[in-house]
Automatic annotation (TrEMBL):
Comp. bias regions, Gly residues: 194-203, 213-226
Superkingdom classification of source: Bacteria
The species this protein was found in: Streptomyces calidiresistens
Biased composition (Acidic residues): 228-257
Protein name listed in UniProt: Small secreted protein
Region Disordered, annotated ranges: 164-257
Length: 257
């Protein structure tokens, strides 16, 4: 029904995947921090992937608007809950053993909570969509894509730093941070797939999310990917290539006429 939104929402997976990082053995304190974080975060990362998969499937389905709306509302709620849970996981793990660790923790928690609040806003917006009018419903979806563009201003330096260097390497060694479909292979090295703006099927598949954000190919950043705020705008660029949901709805009305 709305491939445009599906492609944009594929970017939601990027943050979950890039938290897996990559690397080798690290110092004991770093490993302990990563272990505590990943033990708490693992379920949240899987929750994010599941929500994005549901959104992608609903966006490309031929279901009635009311059915799609229900999936969107539930999935956005799950994303909001998951990012809040990741914030709690960072808080619980304490200050990471890096320079300015206390400030890094506080900033990362703030960024994750901001993402949580943003997805809750999308949940509320989806609940208010007019499902009785397909054209109006499609227009509402298009406005949501515009909101997703703004999400690019939320993720910032703290999340990037949290996933970089030895911290990123240590997280890759933790089972809890190895979510299914991650670009991290068995050796903890990133395959380099799913890079921002790359070609994909828009399905939300973690192996190849269209415009999903750099979940690999990140050089020395520990596989951290692009969590510095650029994913929202580039996801929107990818979404523009997928067509206009309002125009799709109009075409349907002409056909029915």
């Amino acid at each position: 029904m709305n491939r445009k939104l599906a492609m944009a929402m594929a970017g939601c997976t990027a943050l979950a995947l890039t938290l897996t990082g990559c690397g080798d053995d690290t110092a004991e304190r770093t490993e302990e921090w990563a272990a505590e974080f990943c033990d708490a975060a693992g379920g949240r990362l899987q929750q994010i992937q599941a929500a994005n998969t549901a959104l992608a499937e609903a966006s490309e389905s031929d279901e009635e608007p009311a059915v799609v709306q229900e999936v969107y509302s539930e999935s956005y709620g799950q994303l909001s809950e998951a990012y809040a849970g990741l914030a709690e996981a960072v808080e619980s793990a304490g200050d990471p053993p890096v320079d300015d660790g206390e400030q890094l923790r506080e900033d990362a928690v703030a960024e994750l909570n901001a993402l949580s609040e943003s997805y809750d806003g999308l949940r509320q917006a989806s609940d208010e969509l007019d499902t009785a009018d397909r054209a109006a419903f499609a227009e509402g979806l298009r406005e949501m894509v515009g909101q997703l563009e703004e999400f690019g201003q939320i993720g910032g330096d703290a999340l990037t730093r949290l996933q970089s260097g030895e911290l990123g390497e240590a997280m890759a060694e933790q089972e809890g941070c190895r979510v299914p479909g991650s670009p991290v292979d068995g050796d903890g090295d990133p395959d380099g797939v799913g890079s921002q703006g790359g070609e994909g099927d828009g399905s939300g598949n973690a192996e190849n999310p269209e415009g999903s954000g750099d979940s690999g190919d990140s050089g020395d950043s520990g596989g951290s990917g692009d969590t510095d705020g650029s994913e929202g705008s580039e996801d929107a660029d990818a979404a523009e290539e997928a067509g206009d949901p309002a125009e799709d709805a109009a075409d349907e009305e002409e056909t029915e006429g």
